[in-house]
Every structure is written in structure tokens, then in C-alpha cells.
Hints:
heterodimer; A: mainly alpha; 77% helix; globular; B: 0% strand
Amino acid sequence: MVLRRDWWKILAVLLVGFTIVAGLLGTVPRLPILNESIRNLYFHVTMWFVMLFLFTISVSSSIAYLSTEKPLWDIRAELAVKVGMVTATLGILTGMIWANFTWGKPWVNDPKLNGAAVSFMGYAAYLILRQSMDDPEKKARIAAVYNIFAFVMMIVFIQILPRLTDSLHPGSGGNPAFSSYDLDQNMRIVFYPAVIGWFLIGYWIYTLLVRIRLIQNKLKQSQWND
Amino acid sequence: MERLMSSHLVKLTVFLLFSPMAVLHAQSSDIPMADTFRAEGKIYVVVAVMLVIFSGLISYLIYVDRKVSKLEKDVKEQEK
């Protein structure tokens, strides 16, 4: 690790470390239904933000691939989705723990939850689609086009549709959440560092996967040359 | 005149920053929170546990990062 190059990794650790301490010790508004579980904003919600961040990296890489046809962009698009799927899984699991406690069931038929499930499966389909093709160029091109479609569907299913109907999820349909957080400075000073810190940690893991893939590719090439 | 404006601006900003807190404070208290748990200081135990787990995971991430850097170096040297 070189300080000049890896300073953002240290920043990531400090920010998330800060949110673990301040997230549990800091003052939060007293709201019905949520009570102390309002602190999940710092942990559960950030997982979904990291997923959105990584999927945005992925879709921009796919667009870059389609315009340049450089294989590196395809690698980036694939691996950003893979890390994003991990944080999405963590988001679903943490949400289910909370739902089981608050609503009595881990899953309810709610537009926000079902939208998350549909977009999760849309991205699972992206990874399966990749595995179903052998020709690397064809794979990269079709996957890039599908990735743009999956991204748009994800935005529609988790950001737009739940807002058009009533949802039980905090923050929609008059349920306490963002509307009240917006006013709360105490939560903001923990939530924003949490988002930035987890963005950086997600990005860190993603860069590691890309670097490992590049090493693997180089080793494969040298095998062919030998 | 300018100074007067700026002092008003400061006052307004301070008011806008802190007024929501006052509102939230007023509606509070009858909603149950883990006040006893906090008063007993047990929350610090949870914070300590989470920090240990987090630092363990981060140490592992740094370990993997270093290993990848070493592999990159090896591959580069092999290419020469």
C-alpha cells in the first residue's frame, strides 16, 4: 500500500469506523414504528446505495465498451455487477431481518420489496447470460446491451414504481423515514460519511477483482505463448 | 449595510440548522427507545464488538490487496 495512491482506502476505513461508533452512539429522532431501528439507515440503506453506485459504474463501463470495444470495459462492467450483487444480497438480508421484527414477516408483497427482488433477478440474469456464451466478443457486446436494459429496469423498479403507489417501506407512502431524516442534522452527519465510506469500500473490493482478473488474463496469454 | 446583512444571514442559518431539532425534541419522550440499555453503558459493548469485526475484515482486505500487488509485480517481471 502506497499512501499517495491508496489514501482513499484509509479514508474509507476511517469513515465506516466513524459510522459504526457514531451510528450506535449518536442521537436519533424518536419516531414511531422505527424506534431504535432507525439506525439501520446507516447500515441497511448504505448497502443499497453501494449497489446503485457499482451498477452505475457497470452501466457506464458497458456504454464505454460499446463505443470503444476495449475488453477492459467489459471486465469492469461484469465485476462491478458482481460486487453490487453482494451488497444487494446484504441489503435484502438486513431488510428481511428488520421486516421480520417490524412487520412480523420477513417478506411482504410490497412494491418496494418486490421491485428490489425483480431488479436483483434482472442482474442475476445478466451474469447467467454472460456464462451462456463462449465467443468473448459476442458475449461482451450482448452483455453490454442487456446491462443497459437491466439498469433502466432497476431504476424503474426500485426508484420510480414504489413512489407511484403506496409502500410500507420507510420513506414511502407517508411512512416515517427520509421525510423526517431530511430535517435531522444528527443523522445526516453520520449518514453521508457512511455512504461515502461504503462507496469507497465497495469500489476497493471491485478494483481488487479487476486486478485479479487482469493477472489471470495475463497468465492465460503467457500460457498460450509458451 | 453589508455587515448587517451577513449577521442576519448567520442568524438565519443558525435558526434553519437548529429549528428541526427543537421540533423533534418537542414530539419525543413517549416513544420507546433503548434508554436503559444506553444508560447501563452496554451499547459500548456492541460498539466494541462491531469495531473488532470491522477491523478484522479490513485487515483481511488489506492482506488480499497486498497479495494482489505482489502478484502484479511477479507478472510484470515475468513479462520482461
